[in-house]
Design brief:
heterotrimer, A mainly alpha, B mainly alpha, C alpha/beta, A: mainly alpha, two-stranded antiparallel sheet, about 75% helix, B: two-stranded antiparallel ribbon
Chain lengths: ~290, ~325, ~240
């Protein structure tokens, strides 16, 4: 019995980070209608930045976030301006492969700079744990979970209660009407994309004391994130959070009972099933995913 | 399609004759190996382009079909002694059947959702190949013993494979031309260009798209078998990796999506870049070739979204690019 | 004997009733115009007829065969074709190839389809534009291309959604002549049009919609005298003065 609770807890904790990664992806899709296939590389970049700040300068990851997250935001602004905006009206194939090629570019840039060696942020508190009854709970994991969910919640609040947030939501609903009421849609796109990168950057910071990083870390994570985003419904923040936690738990259980490689198989099959049966996800807006066919 | 058949046939015939002469001119083993890989990639990219280019169904799971071709023929050969000449057809049939099922599930998904579902399919097949150790040898793969015998598609002279790959390129090119000039090809293009308009004109695209997806899967599967016989070795990462799917797609895109010559142009360009990079930079910096490749792809997509082939073509002739 | 019959078509989007109880018949060699202010549900009626949207209530039949839940593709194959108000060209293709896409339906081969396409383009005075990319056409030519594509499918009932919108007067005049020729050919035509003088010149019957509901039907002369129509178009005060 205890093992189930332990598995559920560790699944939830990592699911919080998955949720944070996916929230950025789903936000960008919801507003720009673009799937950023390079989303994972921003995670990797953030993890490397955190690693080097920790290793070279001795800055704690949680402190490093003050620099890393804004840096990722700026990187997002740059990417949007250079690659996304010029291709928004381009054929679909261009949109898909620009971000795919960007992913390839960044991966190999990191590979060239840092080789494929794994690098680990070893904090003094990584192993600190407390005990509730028979359960051991890592302080670090709890902290990561809480911060991840707080950030996702913060994003939801930002979208709901600020002027910029309303403008983003209006643009997501209907970009033409948004323009008509005087919203600078180009700027909204840029901010949204950058926000997505900043969020995945924050997820990278949070992951770095838990996971080693190499150039492919983000690419592995992003596949999980696609599963989550589709499961939650493309464009739905709440859906991404719920699905993120769910996938975290599913992964934790299948990993324990079926082994590491098969756990991937489980969620990819889950992904195909969801796409086949309920392509608009648990909470997604209908209409973006499926066309009428005969 | 053509005003005078002869004048239209001349450029491709001349082009293929030039390609056939290349291994004789550059007979250095390193260059012949690069050419073989270029031709094999061109054939695979042609197969991808049938569905990805003409119908605009951007699959990133085609490496799974390539891998199925490699594994089916190799497993049948190693375990049952069945010649890969037969095995490659069985692999193609298995791939085509998988494609029909996958297509039935995913063909109603729009754009990026289709891309993601094919990514997931590729990952499922890849992971399965790693885990079905009894059949596939797991991550370490399967080796085919080098016993040259044309009946088993094993040759000591590696240049034979160069010409086998070139033959695939020519056959796939002809298939592409025939489909492009048919009602099937027009139907696929109608779907790609404007789905609602196609429906309003009574074009039933779903059976066409699934059919061509299956054909595309079957053809790329044959490339997989040739890959296995050429390297005499099959493992999940080299015949099923996501990078392989991405490469087949990117070659077609760089050369000219939805054209019959585009994938060939793309494959040759990519190969030239990678040979040059390897010669000048060597292998010590492993990411640099791919880095340059990715940068080129981004530049092409931004500056010439129709690909380099049609760009050149447009200068030479004003003619609807997808038709040729 | 009517070719196309619509019976009690009703469609709600959430709380909004877009179309309610719309019935009409379109006969070969006759032109039925559907008019009404913006948002009256005219295009929704076309979407219901052609199967792009499924009605909540009501049915559509062609030659007394109920079309049921038939797809737009199948409806076109049985002879019910439409144009789109927002024209839907295959942008990356030449004008000729655009029309070939329609002509394929009745042609055995692409060569045969190309022959049909050339004829249709010739009828519409578009032969000179064969090799131009559809995406590069000015709006007037795009409207004609939209017509050419569907005509190539040889429809028996044809729905034209604002094919004169954005045309200059001389083009409107040509289009009117062309639609008349289609009528003479025995095609049953249903036309949505804002160009009132064209509607009056062309129509055999007119159906007026307001807020998705039919408010009047009859010949052009009858409809223009109908106080309900006048009030809908010009406001109640004006209608009162008119009567």
């Amino acid at each position: 019995m205890d093992i189930y609770v332990q598995l559920a807890l560790s699944g939830l904790f990592i699911g919080g980070v998955y949720a944070l990664i996916s929230v950025g992806l789903t936000l960008v899709f919801g507003v720009l209608r673009v799937v950023n296939f390079a989303h994972g590389e921003y995670l990797t970049i953030a993890m490397y930045l955190t690693y080097f700040m920790f290793q070279r300068v001795g800055i704690d990851p949680f402190v490093a976030s003050i620099a890393v997250v804004p840096l990722l935001f700026v990187l997002g602004l740059l990417t949007e301006r250079l690659l996304i905006r010029p291709t928004l009206e381009a054929p679909h194939v261009v949109q898909v492969f620009v971000t795919f090629a960007l992913s390839l570019f960044l991966q190999n840039l990191l590979l060239t700079l840092f080789t494929s060696d794994f690098r680990t942020v070893r904090t003094s508190y990584a192993t600190a744990a407390f005990q509730i009854g028979p359960l051991y709970v890592s302080w670090l994991r709890v902290a990561v979970f809480v911060v991840a969910l707080a950030l996702a919640g913060g994003l939801a609040a930002f979208l709901k209660y600020t002027y910029m947030g309303s403008a983003i939501r209006a643009t997501a609903q209907d970009r033409r009407s948004a323009r008509l009421v005087g919203i600078n849609v180009d700027w909204i796109y840029a901010v949204t994309f950058a926000l997505g990168c900043a969020l995945v950057g924050a997820a990278g910071v949070l992951l770095s004391p838990l996971y080693p990083v190499n150039p492919y870390t983000g690419a592995d994570m992003i596949l999980i994130s696609f599963v989550i985003v589709v499961l939650g419904g493309m464009g739905s923040i709440a859906g991404a959070v719920i699905a993120g936690l769910l996938i975290g738990v599913v992964e934790s259980f299948t990993g324990y009972f079926a082994g590491g490689e098969l756990k991937q198989l489980v969620y990819f099959v889950l992904f195909m099933v969801v796409l086949a049966l309920r392509p608009n996800g648990l909470l997604g807006r209908k209409g973006a995913e499926v066309m009428d066919v005969t | 399609m053509t005003n005078s058949p002869l004048s239209a046939l001349l450029p491709p015939i001349a082009g293929f004759a030039a390609l056939a002469a290349l291994p004789l001119v550059f007979s250095d083993a390193f260059l012949v190996a690069a050419l073989t890989l270029a031709f094999l990639s061109a054939a695979a990219s042609l197969a991808w382009n049938l569905s990805g280019g003409y119908a605009g169904q951007l699959s990133l799971g085609h490496a799974a079909f390539y891998g199925i071709g490699a594994y089916v023929s190799t497993i049948l050969f190693l375990k049952a002694g069945i010649s890969p000449l037969i095995g490659m057809w069985l692999g193609a049939i298995v791939s085509a059947i998988c494609a029909v099922f996958l297509g039935a599930v995913t063909m109603r998904l729009k754009g990026s959702f289709f891309v993601m579902s094919t990514l997931a399919f590729g990952a499922v097949v890849h992971i399965s190949a790693i885990n079905l150790r009894d059949f596939t040898g797991g991550a370490s793969g399967l080796a085919i013993p080098l016993r040259p015998n044309p009946a088993n598609l094993i040759f000591a002279d590696k240049m034979v494979y160069t010409y086998i790959a070139l033959a695939l390129v020519i056959v796939f090119y002809v298939i592409t031309r025939l489909i492009a000039a048919s009602k099937v090809g027009y139907g696929l293009v109608a779907f790609r260009e404007n789905h609602d308009a196609a429906r309003a004109l009574g074009i039933r695209t779903l059976p066409l798209r699934i059919g061509v997806f299956a054909l595309s899967a079957g053809l790329i599967s044959i490339c997989g078998t040739v890959h296995a016989q050429y390297y005499l070795y099959v493992d999940p990462d080299s015949v099923m990796g996501l990078n392989l799917s991405l490469n087949f797609a990117l070659m077609a895109i760089v050369g000219g999506l939805g054209t019959a010559y585009g994938p060939i142009v793309g494959a040759l360009l990519v190969s030239i870049v990678s040979v040059v990079m390897q010669v000048y930079l060597g292998d010590q910096i492993s990411g640099l070739t791919q880095l340059a490749y990715a940068a080129i792809v981004i530049l092409v997509l931004m500056a010439a979204p129709n690909g380099l082939g049609p760009l050149t073509h447009a200068f030479l002739k004003r003619r609807a690019a997808w038709r040729s | 004997m009517a070719v196309l019959k619509a019976k009690d078509l009703t469609k709600r989007f959430g709380g909004l009733t877009a179309v309610k109880d719309v019935s009409f018949e379109a006969r070969p060699g006759e032109i039925l115009s559907i008019i009404g202010p913006n948002g009256a549900g005219k295009t929704t009626v076309f979407n219901l007829l052609t199967g792009f949207i499924k009605p909540d209530i009501g049915s559509v039949s062609l030659d007394d065969h109920d079309l049921g839940s038939m797809s737009p593709e199948s409806r076109c194959r049985t002879g019910l074709a439409r144009t789109f108000q927002i024209v839907q060209p295959f942008r990356g293709l030449s004008v000729l190839d655009n029309v070939v896409m329609g002509a394929m339906l009745r042609a055995r081969s692409i060569d045969a389809a190309r022959e049909i396409a050339r004829q249709v383009l010739d009828e519409l005075d578009m032969s000179a534009l064969c090799d131009v990319y559809a995406g590069q056409l000015p709006i007037g030519d795009r409207k004609r291309l939209e017509m050419a594509k569907v005509l190539a499918t040889s429809p028996r009932a044809l729905l034209l959604d604002e094919v004169m919108g954005g045309l200059i007067p001389i083009e409107v005049k040509k289009m009117i002549g062309f639609i008349r020729r289609l009528r003479e050919r025995g095609i049953a035509l249903v036309v949505i049009e804002h160009h009132m003088s064209a509607v009056m010149q062309l129509s055999d019957h007119i159906l007026v919609l307001q807020n998705g509901r039919p408010i009047a039907t009859g010949t052009p002369a009858e409809v223009t005298r109908d106080p309900v129509v006048l009030s809908a178009y010009l406001g109640p005060n004006f209608a009162a003065i008119g009567s």
